[in-house]
Amino acid sequence: MPRATLIEQFRLEDVSHSPAFFDVKKLTHMNGEYIRALSLEEFIEAATPWVAPWSSEWRPSDREVPWTRDQFDPELFNQVAHLVQERVATSGEIPAMVSFFFLDEVPFDDAVFAKTIANDDAGRALLALALDAFATVEWNTAALHESTLKLGESIGLALRKSQAPIRCAITGTSVGPPLFESMELLGRQAVLERLRSALVRAAA
Fold it and tell me: Quick one: what percent of the chain has pLDDT higher than 70?
């Protein structure tokens, strides 16, 4: 709109007396919508300063990634990126969402670990069953989903409940990319090692 038109139509008496405020929640939501509108290639490029700052001209000045350059696997990130893109509202959320893929030791959320494993008999029983089942199950998303569903049903747990201790053992927390897709990408050996470690930690 031309400036002259704005000046002509502006009336001070029509200005609302309600105080303006900066709606961070709405802005964050909108930012997430813009992230999801990116192509996968654009998202990976936009995520680079946050996951591989050493390969970017610009990088965040207020944080460091929790993994080393040697630990980071760009091909693996490219494979998981589409799962992450659907679940973050800001680029700064990406590292926490994918850290379990690149760190040698899972960074546990103590409260989540206590709730889903350490203080939950059913959670520990589920992990023990999963150790046996996942050692031989066909290693793909659909088979892992079906196996976990059956394991939960065998001890009276719905899928949501049976996923919780497995997700915590593998990722260290209760939120993240889709569990079974993540397990497939992480690989059988890494998953089994993390399930064992979680049971050892719970028994300590």
Answer: 100
Which single residue is written with the structure tokens 């990088």? 59
107 closest CA partner among 194, 190, 48, 187? 194
Q: Which residues are within 8 A (CB) of 119 and not within 5 positions of it... i.e. 6 or more apart?
A: none
For the CA atoms of 57, 63, 67, 72, what is the dihedral angle to 10 degrees?
-30
Report, as ranges of residue numbers, the positions in the chain whose pLDDT lies below 70. none
CATH number of this structure's domain 110-203: 1.10.10.350
Find the angle CA(190)-CA(194)-CA(196) to the nearest 5 degrees: 120
> How far is it, in rounded angstroms, from Cα 204 to Cα 185?
29
Upper half-sphere CA count for residue 156 (Cβ side, 13 Å): 2
- List the domain boundaries for the chain: 24-101, 110-203
Task: For 138-180, write each residue's pLDDT tens digit.
Answer: 999 999 999 999 999 999 999 999 999 999 999 999 999 999 9
